[in-house]
Please model this.
Amino acid sequence: MAVLVDIFLLIILVICVITDIKNRKIYNKVIFPALLAAFVFHFASGGWEGLSHSFIGFLIGLGLLLIPYLLGGMGAGDVKLLALIGALKGGSFVFQSFLYIAIFGALMALAIILFRKGVLTSILYYFASLKGGVRLPGGISKGSLTATYPYGVPIAAGVIACMFVNGWTVLW
Model:
């Protein structure tokens, strides 16, 4: 049964990553039916206890990204995707995944800042000028710090990393 949940989760993650990269959206028409399927599956396989386990995971996943969303640093689709992951895999898994998601998100943000057009060159020139005793204005532009990126990618990467750490192996 757990293998079915894992396969279903991977399919949802692939769909959400593609739409997030392509359109910068994680669609409700993907999340809501999957969420309903998660609740129905857990109720059918575990009764009220399974449903409550799923609902607690949903609330934990929702709560982890709710504050960043309310502060404007996160899209609603990202929040709903993490809530769906909690509903599918439970509260403990979604919290563990969140730690990996944060690491992948930070690495992706750093890469975007550094490899944005001209930023890395500007930083290198700035440090080279300091060595020569000249102080040139430079560094990271404000636009680089306010850039948005598809957070569905780090969510998927963090979830897959957590699955591997918890003993999941590729099925083929």
User: Anything to note?
Assistant: Residues 2-165 form one domain.
